[in-house]
């Protein structure tokens, strides 16, 4: 089984086909064409809320929704209302499904039973008959194991078991999920290396980029109202602020350079607000919409990847790396594996872990003591090979092959069964 490997500059080799041993080659050649004529529904099970932060799932599933119905099933909300499914349409027709469960229903066994019943109700009410399962969380296996998807995919975007508050059963359920799915996609190369032997069809699809969206930051003039009165130089970060955020590093650098302004954008989750460093030159602007980010980014001098080095960041592939670069901003990052390779090795991003190294890297950028024109040309050359459209197209080809092979196998089994029935009737 061949697997996708990133090239030296982050491009991708020719996409290998999944295992088609025993399948007529003419059938395989027709598979993608046939699949495009009749796309099964896609039902995604996610630990993330659709409206939380616009990231990998939204980029991929909105593209999937161009050709098929997509249902994005979130984890349940526990409240005082009745047990129900809330279904609402979002970007490009994606149907976001929020299960509402009674507050007192907290045991995993009871929750799984109710979720299984609600999922069946979703299928019945929406006429979901032929479908693909797309998993972001192995926990969903507790209530989907009795279903019969025509194909299943596990988009492993993070090592969830390493996150704060992770369910102790995650490693076990992930192992079970590997035994059931047809394809495994990983959110980065380091995660691919960790998972490549767990399944016969594992493919690396690192974080990609909506180039026109973030590239627009190079031409923005207006500064957002809550940022316009902040002095320069500005060093900014946007993203989720949780146990992966390097609080100590921000505290130390801001303390050393009180004349620099640090802008932090994003929701604070799983950590206490009072644990964040408090300095006059640190500005927490809260969450912003995806559409707003280029305007903020456009008016920064340096973009930061302030990630702590711990178990929760060991396999992350930050989406914001190419987004910062598309905006034409110099980037400083801690030594996250999927940033060091390829971005650090290609001198597209400066790598610094300690406060002194971080300050030196920032001073270099602020004094423009680097070849900015050459750097920006190399950034553009690198990003030219990346897009979420391209990523989805490559994923879709693999999914279509898996679906058509399953359809073919099902047809063959049906024909064999009918032949056996006829033979038995003849003998009788």
Structure overview:
The protein is an alpha/beta fold. The chain contains 14 helices and 15 strands. The protein has two domains: 25-208 and 387-422, 3-Layer(aba) Sandwich (Rossmann fold); 211-383, Glycogen Phosphorylase B (Rossmann fold). Helices cover 38% and strands 16% of the residues. The strands form two sheets. Strands 1, 2, 3, 4, 5, 6, 7, 8 and 9 form a nine-stranded mixed sheet that branches. Helix 1 (25-37) crosses helix 14 (388-427), helix 2 crosses helix 14 and helix 8 (247-256) crosses helix 12. Mean pLDDT is 88; it is low at 1-36.
Distance between the termini: 46 Å
Percent of residues in helical segments?
A: 25-40%
Number of strands: 15
Share in β-strands: 15-25%
- Average pLDDT over all residues: 88
What's the alpha carbon Rg, rounded to whole Å? Answer: 24 Å
CATH class (first level) name of the largest domain: Alpha Beta
CATH evolutionary superfamily of the largest domain = Glycogen Phosphorylase B
Descriptors for this entry?
428 residues, alpha/beta, Rossmann fold, 2 domains, nine-stranded mixed β-sheet, six-stranded parallel β-sheet, 14 helices, 15 strands, 16% strand, disordered N terminus
Could you give the topology of this structure?
Elements: H1 25-37, E1 41-45, H2 56-64, E2 70-73, E3 77-79, E4 84-89, E5 95-102, H3 108-126, E6 131-135, H4 141-144, E7 151-156, H5 170-180, E8 183-186, H6 189-195, E9 202-204, H7 211-215, E10 234-238, H8 247-256, E11 261-265, E12 282-286, H9 293-298, E13 302-305, H10 320-326, E14 331-333, H11 337-344, E15 350-351, H12 355-366, H13 372-383, H14 388-427
Parallel strand pairs: 1-2, 1-6, 2-5, 3-5, 6-7, 7-8, 8-9, 10-11, 10-13, 11-12, 13-14, 14-15
Antiparallel strand pairs: 4-5
Helix pairs in contact: 1-14, 2-14, 8-12
């Amino acid at each position: 089984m061949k697997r996708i490997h990133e090239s030296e500059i982050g491009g991708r080799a020719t996409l290998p086909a999944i295992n088609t041993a025993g399948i007529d080659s003419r059938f395989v050649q027709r598979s993608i064409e046939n699949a495009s004529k009749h796309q099964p529904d896609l039902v995604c099970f996610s630990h993330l809320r659709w409206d939380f932060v616009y990231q990998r799932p939204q980029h991929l599933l909105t593209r999937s929704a161009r050709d098929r119905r997509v249902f994005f099933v979130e984890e349940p909300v526990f409240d005082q209302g009745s047990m129900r499914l809330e279904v609402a349409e979002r970007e490009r027709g994606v149907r976001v499904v929020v299960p509402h469960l009674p507050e007192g229903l907290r045991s995993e066994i009871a929750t799984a039973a109710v979720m299984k019943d609600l999922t069946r109700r979703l299928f019945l009410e929406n006429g979901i008959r032929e479908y693909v399962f797309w998993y972001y969380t192995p926990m969903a296996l507790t209530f989907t194991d009795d279903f019969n998807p025509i194909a299943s995919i596990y988009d492993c975007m993070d090592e969830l078991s390493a996150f704060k508050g992770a369910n102790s059963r995650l490693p076990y359920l992930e192992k079970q999920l590997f035994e059931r799915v047809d394809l495994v996609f990983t959110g980065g190369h380091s995660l691919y290396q960790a998972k490549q032997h767990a399944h016969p069809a594992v493919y690396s699809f690192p974080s990609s980029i909506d180039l026109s969206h973030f590239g627009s930051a190079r031409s923005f003039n207006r500064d957002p109202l809550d940022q316009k009165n902040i002095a320069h130089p500005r060093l900014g970060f946007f993203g989720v602020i949780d146990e992966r955020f390097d609080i100590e590093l921000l505290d130390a650098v801001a303390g050393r350079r009180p004349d620099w302004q640090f802008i932090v954008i994003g929701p604070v989750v799983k950590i206490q607000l009072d644990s964040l460093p408090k300095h006059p030159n640190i500005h927490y602007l809260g969450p912003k919409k995806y559409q707003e980010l280029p305007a903020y980014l456009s008016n920064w001098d340096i973009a930061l990847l302030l990630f702590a080095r711990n178990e929760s960041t060991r396999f992350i592939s930050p989406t914001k790396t190419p987004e910062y670069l598309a905006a034409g901003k110099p980037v400083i990052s801690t030594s996250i594996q999927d940033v060091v390779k390829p971005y650090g090795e290609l001198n597209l991003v400066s790598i610094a872990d300690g406060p002194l190294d971080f300050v030196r890297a920032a001073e270099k950028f602020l004094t423009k003591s680097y070849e900015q024109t050459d750097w920006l040309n190399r950034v553009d050359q690198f990003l030219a090979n990346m897009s979420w459209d391209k990523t989805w197209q490559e994923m879709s080809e693999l999914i279509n092959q898996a679906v058509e092979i399953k359809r073919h196998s099902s047809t063959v089994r049906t024909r064999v069964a009918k032949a056996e029935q006829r033979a038995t009737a003849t003998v009788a």
